[in-house]
Structure formats: C-alpha cells, structure tokens
Specification:
Helix 1 packs across helix 4 and helix 4 runs parallel beside helix 5. A hairpin with a 6-residue loop joins strand 5 and strand 6. It is built from five helices and eight strands. The strands form three sheets. It has a four-stranded antiparallel β-sheet. Strands 2-4 form a two-stranded antiparallel ribbon. It has a two-stranded antiparallel ribbon with strand order 5-6. The chain is α+β, with helices and mostly antiparallel strands and about 220 residues long.
C-alpha cells in the first residue's frame, strides 16, 4: 500500500559549519565568505539539497565500484532511493529533504550563554610556499552547539523495499557523522551528529512490523 513516512529529529553542529551563501553584494570590509541564511529571519540555514547531496556522495563512495562516477550511474540501491535524471531512464527520488532553518529553541539556548548571534567569523591565512605571500580571508561559520530540526519524507511506493531503503538512509547518516557537512571539512569544519530520529506514517498505512523495523534502524544512528 502506498504511504509517505516522515522522519524527524535533530542535527547538532559539533564544530563550526560553513555552507556558503552569496557575497555578491558584500560591502568593503565585510566577511569574504558568509554562510547561507534564511531571507525572512536572517538565521543560518542548511539547505535540504546540501544534506541530500552529501548523504548520496558518501553512499556512492561506499557502494559504487571503482572511482566516483556520474550520479546517474550510482549503485542501483542509491538510484532507487535518491533518483536519477539519466535520459530515458529517469527515476523519481523517494526522499524529500526539507530546508532546515535554525529554530527558536536553538536561538534561546544560545542566549542563555550570552550569545546574540548563531555565527562566528574565523580568520584564515593561506601562505604561498614559494613566494611567502599571504592571502588572508574571513569565513563565517555556524557555531557549534546549534541544533537544526531534521525533516525528511520518504515515498513508500514499494512496501517490500521500505526497510532496505531506510537502512541505506540510516547508513548514510552514520557515514556523515564520521565525515563533515558543508565546506572545509579537512580543516575541522562541519562535524555533525543526528539524534532523536523518529519515524511516523504521514499518509497511508504501513504494517506495524515494518514500521518498527525501520524505527530500530534509525535508532542505531
């Protein structure tokens, strides 16, 4: 039976995270590389595309044979879950990732520590080894401790494959916890952690046994 499953939870930032926004209209002296923000609230956000793309890339590294290939040639299990735009072989993604905007609760937690902003500016300096010429830059980061609300929808178009799909998604989340989200990960940015992942049936029905199996898989993240 057709169903839509909703996965909710928390994504906590453990080290400063940078997902870049536009600096096209930055004033002189402004931060060189700002984070992306929600226009209405001016709060940092994590685009759903950033989380989806990172999870897919990590799973491709795990399961694709040989070096990374075009996304349309990923392992069949990844294509089934994340979709494909390959000509004459298009597959619809079974996952929908909502944008994550820093919620009120996380803002209030920051205020308890006397903080009035959810970002920091990290000064970095690249030095040319041959000429010793310095290239200083300022990178804005979402500070550690910020918690974003996760919201993912799964299209249960094939009941028999639901548990396997959720297992693959959960594995991608575990891989991400040992990698990074956003840019500059090799310099310590973007370590994250998932918690309180919950699964519920938003539309349609799903046998209780399958629902319990899927929840158990998410509990292991």
């Amino acid at each position: 039976m057709y169903s839509k499953l909703e996965i909710t939870g928390t994504l906590e930032i453990l080290t400063g995270m940078h997902i870049g926004g536009s600096s096209a209209f930055a004033a002189i002296g402004a931060v060189d590389s700002p984070v992306i923000r929600d226009t209405l609230s001016d709060r940092p956000m994590i685009p759903g595309s950033s989380l989806k793309g990172k999870l897919r890339t990590l799973l491709a590294l795990r399961y694709n044979e040989g070096p990374l290939v075009q996304a349309n040639d990923d392992d069949p299990r990844i294509l089934r879950l994340f979709g494909s735009a390959k000509k004459n072989q298009a597959k619809r993604s079974r996952l929908l990732f909502r944008d994550m905007i820093l919620p009120d609760a996380s803002v209030e937690e920051l205020r308890e520590f006397g903080l009035h902003t959810a970002t920091e500016v990290k000064f970095e300096n690249a030095i040319n080894r041959l000429t010793a010429v310095a290239n200083p830059r300022q990178i804005e980061r979402v500070i550690r401790g910020c918690r974003f609300d996760v919201n993912i929808l799964y299209d249960g178009s094939n009941e028999a494959e639901t548990a396997e799909d959720i297992a693959l998604l959960a594995e991608g989340m575990r891989l991400l916890e040992y990698d990074y989200l956003g840019g500059h990960g090799s310099r310590g940015y973007g370590k994250v952690k998932f918690s309180d992942l919950k699964l519920c049936v938003a539309v349609g029905e799903l046998p209780p046994a399958i629902l319990a199996e899927c929840q158990a898989l998410l509990d292991e993240v």
